[in-house]
Specification:
With about 550 residues, the protein is α/β, with parallel strands linked by helices. It is built from 16 helices and 24 strands. It is globular. The relative contact order is 0.13. It binds NADP nicotinamide-adenine-dinucleotide phosphate. NADP nicotinamide-adenine-dinucleotide phosphate (NAP) binds next to strand 3 and helix 5. One of its GO terms (molecular function) is flavin adenine dinucleotide binding.
Length: about 550
């Protein structure tokens, strides 16, 4: 039965971003609620329950910084957090701030329409609920909508076919014949975790990637005491850095060092663990200088050759492309292929042609008998998270539906958060946001958002009318152009992946991330605030046109 709600703000999503947005807006006195299509909080960490799911960011920075007590006292044990541990942490935050009573689950948003007369959004949900709000905050995640390839015959498979982002908790893989499609961040975690448990494991590899050891181990008491003592400095360093992962990002250039020093540092990075640190924590230009990148590829290919004993498996797993995708790390991925029950199938050479009732067939006519097929095939990223929602802005009509517009023209935003024509709609970590560790990126976005909303509330109190927060088309165009130019100046642009909007067949290619670094992103936001929000229309940005007053 339909229920009408009248609030100041609605937050859609209860992952890292949604929880902090709900907390922050309520703290400012705004009557705010959060909804989620899931049955509980967690966002990414609610859905991605596949075996081996782990956050590959160091655990002491994979948490919020806003609550010093929580930061210092919430337990830390190992260098990385598993999916259940992240979920437990988020639950703890929600309980601590008593936020659950402001949340509604199993409530999928289907659409929203802006009313320019009342200056409110009417947000519709599958449940029949309609929320009338001044501010609509989308915290739907960067990687939410699964990408499942449309392989002929997939419906006929009589075993179990699952995408990693909707892993059924009751699914048993013990002693079964399992096939995994995809060997990126998710695929390598699944393969490593299930290899010792399954009867046989066929890994269908298209474009193999480079992965380095994660270096996961318990924090030592000395490390823990150092972390606890240094938290304020660590967080201010992370906020000022490029990717906010907690390691120094040296400015030195790879080829400025002698070959011996280069290999010594690469070896140290390999031994130390972490894919993100390997790519960004040794040198400044691995994803800019092609010659440097190629030398790193040689180093990594040498490592693979040293681990994978079987020449056929080794050949399938050895990448030929540049090292320029979201970096990976693992807890024994290459080693898993030394097991007799684990096989590497080259689906670049012989693509998958069909799924049959009992398995997968490839172009060379081989048929692999399987009980379970795991799609570790990633996501329709960023703008893809808005699929299935019709968001109509100023002017209304089909042309103004956000998702249709984005699919036609590519997503354009201002600062990854605001969209021209869609007043008071805010995207947390939306298209063209900064590429960085999600918790500090989220805090950055939400803090800016709360400031601008507070300013809008002050203006509204003065004028007696709700104030619109909407970027100028010029500011939006410039920002989107900056993000694109940045991606194109790196080697990421040369290797298709979701980071450059090239992973889903038929999707318009675009550059979904600002690669200028978190620190620079924060400075840009601070300047925007100091300049009095000049990138925005109406009284907020200083414009005095009648339409916006
Ligand atoms: P992904 O990086 O997009 O990789 C998808 C994989 O599926 C690739 O190996 C791809 O092969 C393969 N694939 C897709 N369609 C295929 C087809 N038709 N046939 C054969 N192979 C196919 O997805 P993901 O691994 O889920 O990772 C996405 C992002 O999630 C990561 O970049 C990361 O940001 C996040 N993530 C993070 C963690 C963490 O530890 N923090 C863990 C998991 C995921 P090609 O390479 O040939 O395209």
């Amino acid at each position: 039965m339909s229920q009408e709600h009248h609030l100041d703000a609605l937050v859609v999503g209860t992952g890292f971003a949604g929880i902090y947005a709900l907390y922050s807006l309520r703290k400012k006195g705004l009557n705010t609620k959060a909804i989620d299509r899931a049955g509980d909080i967690g966002g990414t960490w609610y859905w991605n329950r596949y075996p081996g799911a782990l956050s590959d960011t160091w655990s002491h920075l994979y948490r919020y910084s806003f609550d010093r007590e929580l930061l210092e006292n919430y337990p830390l044990s190992r260098k990385y957090l598993t999916q259940p541990e992240v979920l437990e942490y988020l639950r703890h935050v929600v309980e601590k701030y008593d936020l659950r009573k402001h949340m509604q689950f199993d409530t999928a948003m289907t659409g929203a329409k802006w009313d320019d007369r009342t200056r409110t959004w009417a947000v519709r949900c599958k449940t029949g609920d309609v929320f009338h709000v001044k501010y609509l905050v989308m915290a739907v995640g960067l990687l939410h909508t699964p990408n499942t390839p449309d392989i002929p015959g997939i419906q006929t498979f009589q075993g179990e076919a699952v995408h990693t982002a909707s892993w059924p908790v009751e699914l048993s893989i013990s002693n079964r014949r399992v096939g995994v499609i995809g060997t990126s961040s998710t695929g390598i975690q699944v393969v490593t975790a299930i290899a010792p448990k399954v009867k046989s494991l066929h890994v269908f590899v298209r474009r193999p990637q480079y992965t380095v050891p994660s270096g996961d181990q318990p924090w030592t008491p000395e490390e823990l005491s150092h972390i606890r003592k240094s938290y304020p400095q660590m967080w201010s360093d992370a906020f000022a850095s490029a990717i906010g992962m907690g390691f120094p990002e040296p400015a030195r250039k790879f080829l400025s060092l002698s070959p011996a020093d280069r290999s010594r540092i690469l070896e140290d990075l390999w031994q130390g663990g972490s894919g993100l640190r390997f790519m960004f924590g040794g040198f400044a230009d691995l994803v800019i200088d092609e010659a440097a990148n190629e030398e790193v590829c040689q180093f990594l290919r040498g490592k693979i050759a040293g681990i994978v004993r079987d020449p056929q498996k080794r050949a399938v797993l050895t990448p030929k492309e540049l090292y320029a995708r979201r970096p990976l790390c693992d807890g024994g991925f290459y080693e898993a292929f030394n097991r007799e029950n684990v096989f590497a199938v080259d689906v670049q050479k012989h693509p998958i042609t069909e799924v049959t009732r009992t398995g997968i067939r490839t172009a060379d006519g081989e048929h692999y008998e399987l009980d379970v097929i795991v799609f570790a095939t990633g996501f329709d990223a960023m703008d893809g998270s808005y699929a299935g929602m019709t968001i109509e802005g100023r002017g209304g009509g089909q042309n103004q539906d956000l998702y249709t517009q984005w699919r036609r023209d590519g997503p354009a935003t201002y600062l990854g958060m605001f969209v021209a024509g869609f007043p008071n709609l805010f995207l947390l970590n939306g298209p063209n946001t900064a590429f960085a560790n999600v918790p500090p990126l989220t805090e950055t976005n939400v803090d800016f958002l709360v400031d601008i909303i507070c300013r809008a509330e002050e203006i509204a109190a003065g004028t007696g009318r709700p104030c619109k927060i909407e970027p100028t088309p010029k500011a939006q165009q410039e920002w989107t152009g900056i993000a694109r130019a940045m991606v194109e100046s790196t080697l990421f642009a040369k290797v298709p992946s979701w980071i450059v909007g090239k992973n889903v067949p038929g999707k318009l290619e675009y550059s979904p991330l600002f690669l200028g670094g978190l620190g620079r992103f924060r400075s840009i936001l601070a300047e925007e605030k100091e300049r009095g929000y000049q990138g925005f229309v109406g009284p907020l940005g200083g414009a005095k046109t009648q339409a916006h007053l």
